[in-house]
Structures are given as C-alpha cells and as structure tokens.
Amino acid sequence: MTGFHLDARVLAAYVEDRLAEVDAWSVEAHLDRCGACRSGIALDASGVRLVQTVGMVFGSRLPAQGRVRRATRWRRIRVLVGGGPAARGAWLLAVAVTGLLAAAVAVVPAVIPPWLLLLIAPALPVLGTAASYGPRTDPLHELVAGTPHGGLRIVLWRTLAVLAVTAPVAVLAGAAAGTGTPGMWLLPCVGLTALTLAFGSLVEPAHAALLVAGLWAVVVLAPMGGVTVVVSSGPVWLVVTAVAAALMYARREHVGRRAA
Amino acid sequence: MTTVSVEGLRVSYGKRVVLDGLDLELGPGVHGLLGPNGAGKTTLTRVLATVLRPDRGDVRLLGHRIDDHSGLRQARRRLGYLPQTFGFYPRFTVREFVEYFAWLKEMPPARIPLAVDRAIERVGLLDRADDRMKQLSGGMLRRAGIAQAIVNDPRLLLLDEPTAGLDPEQRVQFRALLREVGLDVVVLVSTHLVEDVVAACTRVSVVDGGRLVFTGLPDELIGTGGDSDSGDSPIERGYTAVLRGARTAPR
Q1: Is residue B22 part of a domain?
Q2: pLDDT higher than 70, residue A162
Q3: I need a labelling partner for B87 at 20 to 30 A (CA). Which of A16, A161, B143, B166 fits?
Q4: Both B164 and B251 in a single domain?
Q5: Is the pLDDT of residue A176 over 50?
Q6: CB distance A143–B126 less than 8 Å?
Q7: Is B240 inside any structural domain?
Q8: Contacts for B14 with CB less than 8 Å, ≥ 6 apart
Q9: CB contact under 8 A, A146 and B49
Q10: At what angle are helices A85-107 and A152-177 packed, to 10 degrees?
C-alpha cells in the first residue's frame, strides 16, 4: 500500500537477476507490501516450481490443525441450533414451567384449573422464540443481525429448537388436563409462534411476543368461555398459521432488523 | 472502483437526527473514519453493516442495493463487521465462535474448517483456539471478534474502534494485519485515535454533526492544520482545523 509502483522494466530486470544487490533489496521490500506489483511478476517454469516447493516446505511446517470438525450437514444443524444459549435457556424455562403445571394438574386436578394450563402451554414457544433472538437477550445479536443467515433464518432455527422441546410438552400437558385431544394443543402452539414471527417483522421480536401473549390471554380469559372456543376451532388455527406464514415470507428480510 | 456508495443518508433515533444528508464513496484500501464522540461514526458503521435500516438514502455495497432482498444477502456474504461492543456465548470455544459465524455467513462448507483456523491464526490466537470465550482477556476477546469478521475473506470489512483494549504491541500487529487485508478489499476503521489513522490508513474521512466534513489523504488532513490549531501532532492540528471549519461554516 504505497503511493508509487515499480516500473515494469525494473521488475523484469529483478526477475532476470540483472539488478545490483542493493536495488534488489529495495525492490523486495516494496514487493512485500504491494500486491499490485507482486502480481506483475512473470515467472518462468523453474520459478513456478521453486515457489511451489518453498510453499510446500512452509506448509508442512505449520502447526497441526486443532480438533478438525468436518463441515457436514449435521455439524451445520448442531452449530446453528445449539448457537444461542439464549435459546437453550428458553427451552429450560419452557420445559420446567409446562412440566410442573402438567404434573400439578395430573396430581391435584382441582388446584390448577385447565384454563391456566391453556393460557401458558401454547404461549411458551412464543416466549421462547422471543427470548432467543433480539438485542436484549442474545449477546451476539449485533453480529448475527449483519450476516446473511441473520434475521428470519436464524430465528427459524431457534424457533425449531424451542418448538422441538415445548410442543411435546404442550401435548403431554393437554393430555394430562384432559381438555380435548392432545393434537389440538399443537395447533395453537404452532399458530401463535407463526404469529410472533410475522409480527417480528414489524416490531422487535420481544415486543411481538408480548403482543401475541397478550392477545392470547384476552382470548383465553374472555368471559364467553374461551377455553371451549379454542379447543374446538382447529380450522381457525390453520388459517391463522397460513396467514402468518404468508406475512412472514413477504417480509422475510425485515424480521429482527429494526428500523432506525 | 467504488465498492461502497452512500447518497443522501439520513438516520434518526426518534426525534434526534444522527446522520443527515451524508454522502460517501469508498474504494479498496484502508479508510479511517474520524470524528468526535456522538458524531455518528457508529451509526454509519451499523448502517453499512446492514444492522440498522436508514430512514432515507441510497446505500450500495459491493454493487448491490441493500433494499433488495437477494442483493442484501449477496452483500452480507462478503461483509465482515466488528462492532464496538459485542457479547459472547461463554461456553463457546474460540474455534466454535468463529465457526458459528462461518456458517452464518453461508460460506461453502468445504472451506470452513481451514478458513476458521486461518482467521484465528491471523489474529494470533491459535494457541488459545480451544479455550472457552469466558477464559479470554479483553484484548483476546477483541481479537476473536476480528477473527470472526475476517473468516469469510470479506470484500468489505467494517471495524468500529478495533484497537480499543489492545496493548501497544497488539496494536502494532493489528495495523500490520489491516495493511495486509486492505491491499484489495475495502476496510473502514472507525476510531477516535488519530495516530491509528496515520499508521494504517490510506484515506481518511471526518464526520461531525451527522455530516461528512472532510475526505482525503492523511497528508491532506495534516495540510489543513496551522500552527494556531490545538493538537500535539500535525494530524491532530489538521483534525481540529477541519472540525473548527465545519462548525463555523453556515449549514
């Protein structure tokens, strides 16, 4: 990175070893720093062989690579899903809370009303997703947000990680509570998560989760018997999920990318 | 060849306007971004890192418009970014940390293991590569951050206060790395250390009050300073002269 470059004739003289030793030294000092002039050197066959030999000798002297992890597809999934301890924390919270609730309902059904379980179990992935992405909860958010896999793609990886753990727990909790078929619990679970991601393209994911959790609480606690409405409305959840997924796809580059 | 082009950039946080009508063109080389605290250096870097969406303005990175989905993704693959402050996952080792970003930057899988080691080697952390991040000192964390920024051989490298927390010897090594990286890519180094600019930068820009008030060679910045300007070195005098000129000129 210097202001001047070597004359082509000087370079040619250097390659043919026609320069005085002092001049050759200063040419080499310049070549060390200047890629443009380095690329101007034309080597003959013996020169190319020499460079290759020297490269091999130096390469074999490099310290051995540490634990090499081959970049397989499984490695990719492991790294991307396991990436956020924030996501791992959300798993633990989700599993612990839902598990405790399910156990409590099974042991003493009278203590915990089913509506409380309905309020919490499907909303857990929502909170888990929000907790695993965003400037407040992800210590690497600033770095992750500027990568091509940041935004929606990494949010989806982390949602998958959260859903993988919370959805079975929600199903189990539903079975324990005896409210509707266990599969019915999965639909609101997926629907609410999709809604969170869709809103996450408009506001911060954490705010989106609060919004969705609030809406959910209103529906469940509504005086006209929200529990029965939710449990018997499978098609509605499919529609909600589909609409949310469409919105999410349309605004995919905006998820997790805040406007100034 | 221009690889970064910014036109009429405006960014505000709520009612406070941070950048207003900023134009910037960058080609290959190491560019220093100087400015007082709060001038908008970090905001500009975050816009170029595609982390912050501007209110207004045309931003082109490596020939891609960043308001276009596929262009944004293409540009991000060739981008390296080191923020002023960043956290870490305490249980990650240095190698896992850098590998995580290699995957996030969608590098070809076959290249990842070697690229990870090479990046760690370039910042001089190879002997600590299998240590957990929480065992590293502040300067080592910063070097790990630089390693994740260069792992994908970026064509645009954005470094926000990269020398903060480095000791003098590491700072010298870091400048050598900068000069090496800057041979054929665009490097933007935001700093408030004027001596970093003299030692490592081929061009320098000064931001003040949300506008670009100077851009040129370090020697030209030195040339703007007179004996009456405050500062301990010629470039510091040039820097204060540029700021004074920008503040007295009618806006």
Answers
A1: no
A2: yes
A3: A161
A4: yes
A5: yes
A6: no
A7: yes
A8: none
A9: yes
A10: 10
Residue B82: pLDDT above 90? Answer: yes
How far is Cα of residue A252 from the mean position of the Cα atoms in its chain?
Answer: 14
Q: Is the pLDDT of residue B94 over 60?
A: yes
Provide the domain limits for residue B70.
27-51+64-78+156-251
Total residues found in chain A within this entry: 260
What integer pLDDT is reported at residue A227 of this predicted model? 60
Q: Does A76 contact B53 at a Cβ distance shorter than 8 Å?
A: no
Q: What single string gives the DSSP state of each residue in chain A?
A: --S----HHHHHHHHTT-S-HHHHHHHHHHHHH-HHHHTTPPP-HHHHHHHHHHHHHHHHHSPPP-S-----HHHHHHHHHHT-HHHHHHHHHHHHHHHHHHHHHHH-TTTS-HHHHHHHTTTHHHHHHHHTSSTTT-TTHHHHTTSTTTTHHHHHHHHHHHHHHHHHHHHHHHHHHT-S-THHHHHHHHHHHHHHHHHTTTS-HHHHHHHHHHHHHHHHH-TTTHHHHHHT-HHHHHHHHHHHHHHHHHTGGGTT--B-
Answer yes or no: do A71 and B112 touch at CB < 8 A. Answer: yes
Beta carbons of B91 and A85 less than 8 Å apart = yes
Residue B47: pLDDT band (50, 70, 90) is very high
Interface predicted TM-score (ipTM) of this complex, two decimals: 0.84
Domain check: are B179 and B232 in the same one?
A: yes
Task: Give the end-to-end CA distance of chain A in Å, rounded to a whole number.
Answer: 36
Average of pLDDT values for A59-82? 71
CB-CB: which of A65, A76, A146 is closest to B50? A146
In a domain, B57, yes or no: no
Q: Are residues B132 and B181 in the same domain?
A: no
pTM: 0.77
Which of B127, B153, B179 is at the close of a domain? Answer: B153
Q: Which residues of B touch A68 (CB under 8 A)?
A: 113
If you measure CA to CA, which chain B residue comes closest to A249? B69
**Minimal CA separation from A223 to chain B, in Å:** 39
Is B169 in the same domain as B139? no
Determine, yes or no, domain membership for B18: no
